[in-house]
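INSTRUCTION: Work out how this chain folds

Token vocabulary: learned, describes local backbone geometry

RECORD BEGINS BELOW THIS LINE
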Amino acid sequence: MKKIVVGGQIDKQAIAALVEKLGGDHVSVEVKGDLDAAMAMKAGEYDYYVGACNTGGGGALAMAMAMLGPDLCSTVSMPGSIKDESFMVDEVSKGKKAFGFTAQHAEHVLPILIREFIK
């Protein structure tokens, strides 16, 4: 079972519900504030962090970037731009642990990310 924490700035409950729906029994999900979520990731309490904001890389990932470093973080969508599936698959396979996106792209990026997380 993969442990996923939802941080970011907006739609946290909706994102958590979607992660639970997509991951089923293969995931456990908690919602936390940005700092708490990033600190919990740093402490190894979760396998992955997902978060949304209006830009995909600001409030969604700022604390994760500060706590985990940019090598473990990836922005997978921004306004008007969603990274393609191969990019997301590659980022997970490289060991990235924190993913930011715009809230309106959650239903596009989360199915790919969750599938890759639970492989």
